[in-house]
Amino acid sequence: MMNKPYIICHMMTSVDGRIDCAMTAKLDGVDDYYTTLDELNVDATLSGRVTAELEMALPGKFQVKNYQPLGKESFAKKIDADSYEIVVDTNGTLLWNDNDAYDTPHLIIMSEKVSTEYIAYLDAKNFSYITCGKNSIDLHRAMEILFEKFNVKRLAVVGGPNINGAFLDAGLLDEVSILIGLGIDARKGMQGAIDGLPMDREPFKIKLESVKTFDSGAVWLRYGLVSSK
User: Fold this and answer.
1) Cβ(177)–Cβ(220) under 8 Å?
2) DSSP of 68-118, one letter per residue?
3) What is the rounded CA–CA span in Å between residue 179 and residue 102?
4) Rounded to an integer, what distance in angstroms lies between the CA atom of residue 153 and that of residue 183?
5) pLDDT score at 229
6) Rounded distance, CA 13 to CA 174, Å?
7) Entry pTM
8) pLDDT for residue 228
């Protein structure tokens, strides 16, 4: 059995399962999202590139002048922290402030095709990072490194929908935690909490572990995965 953190996908949705942040921010129960995240007692949170680009990173994209791939598995632990804000950025494109500008140290997970220029950029910003997987990130190996080198024992995957789907598809999720706020989105084309897998995938079997309600009217559902890859 691989060494990995206990991994929880934790999301807030509307009643119809949509997760657009601008929408959920308007729902009764949005403050309970952070309460429930605290109750999960995780060592780190993890977001995908799109979510990070919208909510965390600086505007623009890193411009590579002379592309040379790093071409190897590596990691750099720049800050020995009790908690990390982790971002999955396969090719290394996001722009950042210096790491000491953030309340929680950031850690970037990339594939081995990331440019050496971007690695130097992260080094200059004092960012911790992991590179693994030749053309796409090897999530299993990344989780092993997080567990063994960064001491992350409990991890919350907090979006977006495609990175949530990737963790589910890889058999890495131990739990799905959904806070349902008071509202219905209903807009055509808005993604669900876990999304992006092929149409021919069978449903993933889960079991209800707990239900909790809040004064706001929000409902917190926690599910365990019955089986995984």
Assistant:
1) yes
2) -B--S-EEE--S--S-EEEEE-TT---B---GGGSSS-EEEEE-TTSBHHH
3) 26
4) 34
5) 43
6) 19
7) 0.93
8) 47
